[in-house]
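FIELD: query
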Amino acid sequence: MTSAPALWAEFDSAERAVAGARLLRARGLKRLDACSPYPLIELEDELGIERPSLIPKLVLLGASLGGTVAFCVIWWTAAVAYPLDVGGRPLNSVVADIPIVFELSVLGAALTTFTLCLGLSGMPRLSHPLEALEGFERTSIDRFWIGACDRGALDDAELAEQLQQLGALRIHRFVGSEAAREG
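FIELD: result
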């Protein structure tokens, strides 16, 4: 998220972080993000994380594609390319194909999930620009960070002052991967 212009504020309590997110949302900023040591339902509500994920539909598509490919390969090899008439049995039996179709459906779903997990999380990435911020290592212990990626947040001195009045310990501004620290 920090590849775009961004403003990040550090807070020492969950209540202040939620208040900071509420302020950013009230100022009309749409692209908000947060880092916290534990999940906060109130913070998720303030960030506007409500849209349903597309991931389950894509995983179902991957499973369907895996099963379809498995069935087509089995059918083509048994009925078209190498037909063997053994004891008058049908060239392709759907019942006999079920275990392989099921297994390749599971494989298709697993590969789709793995690929989406890596792709959507931005991995593999050895470091993130936020990790260079002073004090960010305490996020896993007791610090809360609220970020706004709207360009208007960068130029708004009044917004930074209001965040500090709410208890922001530090405010950092990003342009690309460069950070500048205030307060």
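FIELD: remark
The CA atoms of residues 67 and 159 lie 53 Å apart.
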